[in-house]
Amino acid sequence: MHFFTHRFASFFLFLLCSACAVHGQSASTASSEKVWVSEGSNGHLVYGTNNLGDRIPDFSHAGYGGGGVKIPDVPVQKTVSPSAGDDSAAIQEAVNAVGAMPLKDGFRGTVLLSPGTFHCSNTITLSQDGVVLRGSGTNEATGTTIEMTGAAHTCVSFTAAGRKATSKGSNSTPVKITDAYLPCGSTVFSVESVAGLKAGDTIAITRPWTKEWIHSVGMDALVRSGKPQTWMRENATYTYERIIRSIDGNRITLDVPIGDAIDMRLIAPQSVTVTQMNERAFTSQCGLESLRINSQPPSGMLTAPNNMAVNFNGSRDCWVRGIFMNNTLVNVYIAESCRRITVSEAVALHTSTIEKGAGYPADYVLRGSQILIDRCSTKGDGSFFVDAQNAGSNLNAVLNCTFVGGGAIQPHARWSTSMLADNCHVPDGGIEYINRGTCGSGHGWAMAWGVAWNCTAQRFDIQQPPGCINWCIGCVEIPNLEKPSRKKPKINEGFFSFGTPVLPKSLYLAQLKDRLGEQAVKNIGY
Question: Rounded to whole angstroms, how far apart are CA atoms 62 and 82?
Fold first, then answer.
């Protein structure tokens, strides 16, 4: 029998809090089920595991500052008022002037846009650390509006383009991880040698996508139009960036867990290695706040040029908060190079959709890691609400968001891992952790180790990748007589505790409090 068949035979289904009943389960059946997360008698969370040690990851590391850090109110250094013409150059000049100021406590200052409408035909770029672009509110009558004009472009871009790394990088050689299996949620592992490594080092944990692993998840059998379709390229590698918290002998403890499981038997004859990481250039401590972005409605198909609201590339510890985005095709795009980003209290409105072609756009594209989408909302059809697109998308959280329209929270391609949808409300759409098969360019399994926690939606499609778990816990389906839900997914379902909300009410906030204390929860506005 295949290894993974043995593995799944040992799994228990469902989380069940003692105070909450599970829909469709008798008490005798429920009592034997796995409790994946519970509140312990000492006030700390207790995690259940399967027989290999896999567990629900700690998502509280998602967000600005690594979670639980208050977004600062950065003092104003420059103020710009709207003119009768194109305001792009004036805003960029003020941003550049503040960017040339010295850093003070990690920040340079804020560029404040006065009330009124600014017409912008070019992208406003934040490329220097510690610079914030702030409007005077999102109210159409009294606040700040950026009206996107001219050819299609991105309204605001956070970028490290043109910046150089601060050092030449690694002074260590790769060392092999010696554990036979790294469970999902791991923070500790052994290596052959810790020579050249020390606490505080940023390290690269590099894993190959071997032929054996691709076969184990069934992604070597994709066929489209009679031809094999490539999912993950065989023997390509992916790198998890982490910081060493401590070293004990040859045991390394990380600052942030790994949101995937790694079975070394499926990696051989190659190996998973640890290397002190090359220094990379990135922009940090930058923000966008309190303004409206208006665009003409999108047209054409997905590939046609259209306006984007916000783009993050090469960004760390940055944020967007309190903005309104009207008719931008992609609202916020966060590239794979980004870490520890918060998007809070952002509102998006779609008044029209593009033509159905190669696919639909997404409101929030998550390709980076430790991203928190918090108290955001969308209204309108024709988009995926949250779209994780690659293996670089991991350990991300979508918290207390409301998405109205026919779309879905749907990780979209090529083994995104460990995404949390926590207390999200999707009344007309769905939450879907699925195998997309040959869709697109061979998207295949799009999510593993994902969690939907105390969410409501018109439909849930939580599928089970081989050797992994996707959890659907405390979620409630909203009946829709006009669009009945598909009760049985095409592929085996994930783990459900379905029909009644559970405790803790919010997994992310409970994990944050457990790790950093009540003040960390208050720091992010709860």
Answer: 36
- Tell me: do 194 and 126 sit in the same domain: no
Count up the domains in the chain and report the number: 3
State the residue range of the domain holding 202: 175-276
Nearest to 74 by CA among 298, 381, 287, 219: 287
Residue 338 within a domain: yes
Whether 425 and 367 have beta carbons less than 8 Å apart is answered as no
pLDDT-based confidence at 27, cuts 50/70/90? very low
Q: What is the rounded distance in angstroms from the CA atom of residue 414 to the CA atom of residue 391?
A: 6
The conformation of residue 12, written as its DSSP 8-state character, comes to P
pTM, two decimals, is 0.91
| Angstrom distance (rounded) from CA 430 to CA 478 | 10
Please count the other Cβ atoms lying within 10 Å of the Cβ belonging to residue 206. Answer: 18
CATH number of 76's domain: 2.160.20.10
Is 80 exceeded by the pLDDT of residue 307? yes
Sign of CA dihedral 212, 267, 260, 443: negative
Mean pLDDT, range 130-137, rounded to an integer: 98
Helix (H) or strand (E) holding 155: strand 154-159
Both tokens of residue 291? Answer: 């303004």
